[in-house]
Fold each of these.
Amino acid sequence: MLFTCVASCDSREGDLPSPTFVPPPAGKDRRIHEIRDPESPSKAAHRTQVQVSGAVVVAVDQFDETRNGRSAGTIYVQDLGSKEPYSGISLFNPSFIPGNLRVGAGDALDLRGEFQENQDIPIKFAPGAFLVQLSNAIGTFRFDADVPAPVEIDIDDLADYAKGGKWLNMLVTVKNVTVHGNPFGGGGRRSYNLLPQITSGPVACDAPFPKVPTLVNALADLAPLELTDQTVIKSVTGVVTFFCNLQIAPRSVADVVL
């Protein structure tokens, strides 16, 4: 009996618990804001390979407003649980692991690809304005997460790329805005000015900012809202996109509260 007790006690004292390691939910690689923020010590240079972890899908463009297959497929991702500026990026020509993965809002991914700040594609943009994306990104599914809550911003910030560009590819909300003028655009695209015209006549794509921010149908059909000149919008939520000017793309008509 004494031998049994000693053996049992020795065994119990020898089974020390192993150290517990809980990996960070966002992963060990860079966050999006670390590679995008101009003030970040790890800011990525144009056309360099980067690895990002903890990127949550906020929207997948499945609308194809031009109905020719050329205006769908862009995926917008944002740092897990983050409202920090520069936390969003879009994916160009992505592929996924596993190969049959169909990503949707809330999917958390690890990504690697070429970081790009395109200023000429070949359409030339305004000085200091860039189309920011991860090109040929490879995404690995990690887990299901919550889509980050939208950041409330001032619509006036989107008239200035230096101020509004920090929210590019992120989910935002603006409140108490008015449509100025009737919708415009061709080939299925529709845009609505959210501020009065800053200059008279057409504005060239490479003309310097400020430029009027627009509400666009890049992600959803907005025709049922019947927006016209002087329509007052209580709030609009959507992804900040860019092409010549900064835009807000609602994910559905439910994102627009009249």
Amino acid sequence: MKNKLFYDDISGFYDDMINSDAIIKSKRGLFKRILPEWVKTAADVGCGSGNDSIALSMNGLNVTGFDPSAKMIKTARINAKRCEPGIKFEQASASKIGEKYHNNFDAVLSLGNAIPNIKPSELKTTFNKIHTILKVNGIFLTQLLNYGKVLREKKRIVNITKSKDRIFLRFYDFSSDSIVFNILEFGKNNLNDRKLHSTKLYPYQKDYLTSLMAETGFRNIKCYGDFGFNRFLRNSSEDLILTAER
């Protein structure tokens, strides 16, 4: 399934699967701790159902969320009206963000493994666009899984969660150049009521990403293993956190 269609397809149950209320509460505290006070405007690139955008807005930031999935954007707008109605959302992939946003944001965030959903042929263009929509000295913050560890261990089961009446099994299929990410959803009381959703992820790693970011003009690029900004350990860190400045 094409990536955009995958996220269209899962938009109806995504927030139930990830427990969005808990994520918003956690991210609100995280953003308050890690973002400098001078950051007043932020872009949430790959915003999905809007959880990070809402958490940013709760901290007083002027937020615009971007996502290529039309149904995720629709869900984000509904969620934002319930929590923070001032957030603006636009359906756009990162590389297609409009010129009116150039030199517009103090910070650009792309969290929750959004970057590995972008094809290699579009990644440099994406970083160029993120660089362009930042103000001078603006901050870029991105988070993805430590795919070196994922590829080495090849653990197929990612997570099993449940909502009121559904169970969600997230798992991987591994190939030579990519990972297929799958979500199997099924009814708690009817195992035959099931559907499989799948999309391709690109397991980008630290050296490639930092090199590409430098090529597109980012400076002061730093790598961490978590949001405590502890040192990135190639063999053991669960996440790869990258920060940079325009």
